[in-house]
Specification:
Length: about 300
């Protein structure tokens, strides 16, 4: 879905979208595809790249706000699709911070010895919950999936360096889908009012995003005994190019260290960081021992940063 496609259905322009967000295209799942289908595809890709089979994974975590069903968990369906029936599988729902929260969770399982290998998939079919009459939100979001496998390294070195996570639920309506939950069950009137779609206060979130990303990134690096000079890659949540650039400026990190792919996908929520990580691997620029800073924010509001030392 290109900016030109939006020009045809809304009062907007390519110039406005590119200058305010950095986005040019987003990808949407076909009508036949649900989140579990995209997630299974990404999971399969990750398994092949790692030279593993589904039975080698001890636990499946899916981060999503667009599950196949309200319940059961999409992770159960993904594990079954992969042929891993019987393995533990569960979802986490913390909006765009899903992967940032899930990564330390996976690392803790591995560190503690509860599981040897944990797969974490970020997946969204946000096109299903967009209000295409609202130019302030519909242009921002896309569909996608990214999968990672966290395992104990052969050398036994600890690759998970540190994390700082946070949430403030005092204003959930800053970014939410109003109806369909226990507070406002779905009604015909709610449907007619578009309350099954995303609503957002963009300006407030913008400020929050930059402050929380920068604040948590600084804390995580300081506690890991690192400075931004030690960081090889910053992989931020891809919500808005201006947010990413403002955060990078305040962290004094050169642009070449920041992974940005927002122009191709828009904001894919919990999928954005694992997709960007996957593309960084494909570019062949991620080396053994590189330090990666993952940082993001999202509905909740929620936010966090994770420092990670890369090891294959
Ligand atoms: N095309 C053209 N004009 C648009 C538009 C669009 N797609 N969307 C909004 N506008 C208009 C607004 O109606 C407003 O017009 P007005 O001044 O006549 O009222 C004007 O542009 C400015 O709107 P504003 O909301 O102040 O723009 P902005 O510079 O803050 O950019 C966002 C809007 C949404 C791009 C920006 O606030 C943002 O990215 N916020 C963070 C959102 C986010 O990251 N959400 C996901 C969290 S994980």
């Amino acid at each position: 879905m290109s900016n030109a496609d939006f020009e045809r259905i809304l009062e907007t322009s390519d110039e406005w979208i590119v200058s305010r967000t950095g986005m040019r295209e987003r990808r949407y799942a076909s009508d036949a595809q649900a989140s579990s289908d995209l997630a299974t595809h990404a999971a399969d890709h990750a398994l092949k790249r790692a030279g593993l089979r589904a039975e080698d994974i001890d636990c499946f975590i899916v981060a999503t706000v667009t599950p196949d069903y309200q319940f059961p968990a999409t992770a159960c369906i993904v594990a079954a699709n992969l042929g891993a029936v019987g393995k533990p599988a569960f979802d986490i729902e913390i909006a765009c911070s899903g992967f940032i929260y899930g990564l330390p969770m996976a690392a803790s399982f591995v560190r503690s010895g509860i599981f040897r290998r944990v797969m974490i998939v970020g997946v969204e079919t946000l096109s299903r919950i967009m209000n295409f009459n609202d130019r302030g939100t519909s242009i921002l979001f896309g569909d996608g999936a990214g999968a990672t496998i966290v395992e104990r390294t052969s050398a036994g070195a600890d690759c998970f360096l540190d994390c700082e996570l946070g949430a403030d639920g005092s204003n959930p309506e800053l970014l939410f889908v109003k109806s369909g939950g226990s507070r406002h069950p779905m009604t015909t009137a709610a449907l007619a009012a578009g309350e099954d779609k995303v609503q957002m206060s963009g300006r407030e979130i913008f400020k929050y995003a930059v402050n929380t990303m920068v604040g948590t990134a600084k804390l995580v690096l300081a506690r890991s005994g690192l400075t931004t000079n030690d960081v090889n890659w910053i992989i931020p949540h891809q919500a808005n190019l201006r947010i990413i650039e403002a955060a990078a400026k305040r962290l004094h990190v050169p642009r070449k260290k920041i992974v940005v792919n927002i122009e191709n996908y828009g904001n894919t929520s919990s999928a954005s960081i694992p997709i960007a990580l996957s593309e960084t691997i494909e570019r062949g620029v991620l080396h053994e021992g590189d330090v990666i800073l993952f940082t993001g924010f999202g509905g909740g509001l929620s936010w966090g940063s994770v420092a990670w030392r890369w090891s294959y």
